Amino acid sequence: MLPGILGTKIGMTHLFTEEGKMIPVTVIQAGPVYVTQIKTEATDGYSAVQVGFGDAKEKKLTFPKHGHLKKAGLGKNLRTLKEFRVDSTDGVSLGQEFNVSLFEEGEKIAVTGKSKGRGFAGGVKRYHFKGQHMTHGYMTHRRPLSSGATGPQRVFKGVKKPGHLGDAQITQKGLKVVRVDAERNLILVDGSVPGPNGAFVVIKKSSR
Prior knowledge:
Radius of gyration: 23 Å
Low-confidence stretches: none
Number of domains: 2
CATH architecture of the largest domain: Beta Barrel
Largest sheet: 6 strands, antiparallel, barrel
CATH topology of the largest domain: Elongation Factor Tu (Ef-tu), domain 3
Distance between the termini: 18 Å
């Protein structure tokens, strides 16, 4: 059994409980995924199951990827490949399909995705610096001032400076599955997940 699945973030909406409480949820198109490779201790040194997700045009596939999928005997052009570490590969076969039925309502999951890219940002936006007063008596308002000690006469690694913000891999843990729609392969998650609408995400069963 797979510990997770691949999907695409659709967007956010809300649901109402029987008590009338509103719950903000993120809708994720989770699966179906297809097994493209099985790795074992004997052949690869560890146990893992590689799965493919999403449709792709044949001309978009590289020759190695095309040959890899052909070897799996799928007859599908899959856009994204990802492997999951497993304790055992028993009961898993090449070409096998997994869908959102892997998850149950109320289950805790972890969602990994790439955050939105914000480009170049200053210290106030990037690290939530307080900033100076906005009055005329201050010559600097949002510009970072001291860069640290003056003795070594250099800036140490890790000093918070303006730079690239976002476009980083983020894992949101402890999210709750609110609803599972097996017919349409949709999973509704309590709260927000990283990335813009249409972004690729990895959903795993939470180990905690």
